[in-house]
Model the fold of this input.
Amino acid sequence: MKWPKYLLLLLLLPGCERKPRPIDVPQKLKTAMAEFLKKKAGPDSTRTQFNVEEVVYFEDKDFFDCEFKVRMRTNEKDTTGEMAATISKDFSQVTRKW
Done:
């Protein structure tokens, strides 16, 4: 009777969602934040460039709690600052804190 248990396990395994590898997570967080900033810049996005340089994050049950070091460049300014955001586990929703 052990055979049907193993067969059931084999059938359910491919349906499980694959978690990103820990080495992929920081890059995906940086990409999600960069896309969010570019989208929020609106029509000025052609003149304003954002470069997400560093990320420090904590993985919670439903989201990532992150702090970013971001470099912003325009024709007149070049500055680096910090931003904080929560990002969903699937990297689709970004909510800026500060």
Notes: The mean pLDDT is 85. Residues 55 and 68 are 5 Å apart (CA to CA).
